[in-house]
Amino acid sequence: MPVKSYADKNGKRKYYAAFYYSDFTGQRRKKKKEGFTTSAAAKQFEHDFIELHSGNSEIQFSALVENYLADCTQRLKGSTVYGKRRIIETHITPFFSAYQVSEITPLHVRKWQNEILKKDFKPGYQRMIHAQLAAVLNFAVKYYGLKQNPAALAGSIGTLKRIRPIQFYTLDQFKTFLPCVREKFRLAFRILFYTGVRVGELLALTLADLDAAAGTLRINKTFSHITHTVQPPKTAKSNRIITLPPFLIRELLQYIDTLYAPDPDSRLFYWITRRPLSDELARAAKKAGLPVIRIHDFRHSHASLLINLNFPPLVISERLGHESIKTTLEIYSHLYPDKAANVAARLEKLK
Known about the structure:
This protein is 51% helix and 11% strand. It has 15 helices and eight strands. It has helices at residues 39-53, 61-73, 78-96, 106-118, 123-143, 150-154, 171-177, 183-195, 199-203, 246-258, 274-288, 297-308, 313-320, 325-332, 337-348, and strands spanning 4-7, 13-22, 28-36, 210-211, 216-219, 222-223, 230-231, 240-243. The strands form three sheets. A three-stranded antiparallel beta sheet has the order 1-2-3, with helices on one face. It has a three-stranded antiparallel beta sheet with strand order 4-5-8, with no helix packed on it. The termini are far apart.
């Protein structure tokens, strides 16, 4: 439809764009926008809007990315969308922004892959970057009429194989570490070590999550270090009840007694975020003469502790909130070699 002019309430000439377009579902819609100072600006708005919202593969790659991320925002956690956006805008959009989606070929993807391979990225991160490109183009296949995904045709890069061995503290190392931790952080680290909860799950805990009589802790949410908000847990299996040793229940109750009129639904560790916890970990580890591990490695430390206490993988999987026992075995199988030898020795005694 042609751009038309009108007089605003002050008598100044303005322009508006009014036009029909088909969205990605094929439904015909009408759009009108006023307030443009020139007819060229109104025409440019119409062009950009149709390109962004019409479901065809002639769309610019950068516009496709915005639509993809907008769709993700409605379906995924904020921290997940943040991670996607950071990877896409840093490693993908700069290469493909000049192309319409329909122009991208497997050769383009191959050239982009070679640029990624030149950089000093770990294989797992290379694969993650490629997966984000594939996800964007899968979105184009499903909703924008792209016939096939050039990222899939080009093949992947990197690997899913764990390259860096997991790190953890043994019980003796943890007992060396803890006295070097400042008092205000000690309970947080004891919970991490003796429960295996994720740091976001720790920071989201509320008074209502503790059942002191039953000796349990309910895990049903996580605290995002990106948005600083409480969000649903990482996966469905992350919703779980964890049993606590009596000493940890006593320490939690003692800590709660120090809080002024605690709200059952407020965060117990409202004053902690991930960064100061990481800083305290590094400081205390150096003071104790121990290797500096990550906060997430306390989760591995708990798993290692349970393995050494001869708990079966299924129990460990449920306690950690893994999606399946397969995940547990893939991560911690190397911690079981002596267990296999014990099986052989015990079978030998049966003959």
